[in-house]
Amino acid sequence: MTAPIRLLIADDDRWLLESMADWLKGEGFHVETADSLEKAAKKLQHSAPDLMLCDVRFDEGDGLKFLKQTKRKHPELPVLMMSGYAGPDAAREAIASGAFELLTKPIIDEELRTAIERAVNQKNIIDENARLKAELDKRFGLESIVSHDLRMLRIFDMIDQVADTKATILITGENGTGKSMIARAIHKKSTRRKNPFVEVACGALPDTLLESELFGHVAGSFTGATGNKIGKFQQADSGTLFLDEIGTATPALQIKMLRALQEFEFEPLGGTETITVDSRVILATNENLEKAVSEGRFRQDLYYRIHVIHIELPALRERRDDIPLLSQHFLQTACKEFGRSMEGFSEDAMRVMVEHTWPGNIRELENTIQRAVLLTKSNYIDVASLPFSLTKNSSSPIQTITASAGNSPVNNIDSYSQARSGTRPLSEALEGPEREIILAALRQNDWNRNVTADLLGINRTTLYKKMKKLGIEQVSP
To answer: DSSP labels for 208-268?
Structure first.
């Protein structure tokens, strides 16, 4: 149930004050009153209303002066001013003093209610934006990068040392190792944190469009350029520009980029005006740039220009000790996001995850845990919750599916290794265990074929064919 909106009404007209308070209470608001500016100030010291309504004129002083003092102490508090003597410039003066709006007495009930709702809605939007910004700062700050691997700890130390410099930073590593997160963490650690962080995926755009994206263009510079456009270098002025997949840039673009990184000067595409910026540049790639230089695909002078500070992120398979720590972190994040409550991981599930090579690195691990949280019905993640791509090559003697009937575990294929095959073809020998595994998965998921197919790591059509071949008919669970 939503808590009522809390109002503070300040007016020295006792009859009007009580009348307005009674009506607003009847409308479902929580109302406190003050018949003097002194009392209003004391109430603000001891409580935090969602909105204040305040008269402009008091026998003891000026309501607008009180408004200015209140906004200095409580800048987030919306204030509706009320006046029975509102001249043509009164609203302008009230808003300039910090009021959300000026209401003219006598105030119509619906007008008052609408003004209150409008002011509170704006406050909620401001509060939500502040909350989201705090979440982003927390998510992309260095404290959000979880690790106790020695190489990562050294990288954290390096970030602390170089964050406040303007030195160009090159981040290398496989896809999914967190290059973008490291770039954002550097920005958040620097004095530029309040200025823009602008990210460009260089590999996602063709050469002409990428040049326009980076440096901007003037109207008529190419087909479709109907107006002037500001480029990302200029958007990141006084902030940080993050160029991802820099290894995909063509030689022609590399020449222009070299000058921009050396002089921080450039001309928009099709333009003649030179633009100067103060942008800190961080670049990232999953390519071996030294090899690209030796093969003539990447300019040597540009390579040395961007190779001032080099941060190389290890693959997840090279920091396996971090997998349990990261898994728990992603589990908590996913549970919070999806409204779930889960205890953790089974030993077998964690063993499988530690053994997995994680070609998609941290991104793959996070997606795997999000999927498990969404699909798992129990309060912990076991092997049955993991994708087949993780369990098929596991060396651990694990149970791949847990049957719902009687909660008894279904043996995996290893447990059928003693089955008599004789001269029978292998496909026939495996039909029994395959049928039991599919049946168990269907029962566990209440015969939902989509979820079952996803759990088994096969598509729905393949599941239908196997059910038909193995004589599995859908029945009520």
So the answer is: HHHHHHHH-B-TTSSTT--S-B--HHHHTTTSEEEEESGGG--HHHHHHHHHHHHHSEE--
160, 164, 169, 174: CA torsion to nearest 10: 40
Q: Are 161 and 307 in the same domain?
A: yes
**If phi over 0 gives left and psi between -120 and 50 gives alpha, with beta otherwise, what is residue 439?**
alpha
Same domain, 366 and 472: no
Specify the CATH number for the domain of residue 390.
1.10.8.60
Q: What's the CA gap between 226 and 207, in Å, rounded?
A: 19
Asked if the model's pLDDT at residue 436 lies above 90, the reply is no
140 in any annotated domain: no
SS3 148: coil
Beta bridge partners of 311: 171
Cα dihedral 456, 459, 460, 461, rounded to 10, equals -130
Nearest-angstrom CA–CA distance, 21 and 31: 6
**Claim to verify: residue 190 and residue 296 sit in the same structural domain:** yes
Return the closest-CA partner of residue 49 out of 18, 23, 80. Answer: 80
Q: What is the CATH number of the domain that holds 15?
A: 3.40.50.2300
pLDDT of residue 150: 85
pLDDT at 408 over 80: no
With bands split at pLDDT 50, 70 and 90, how would you rate the model's confidence at 297? very high
Per-residue pLDDT, averaged over 333-356, amounts to: 89
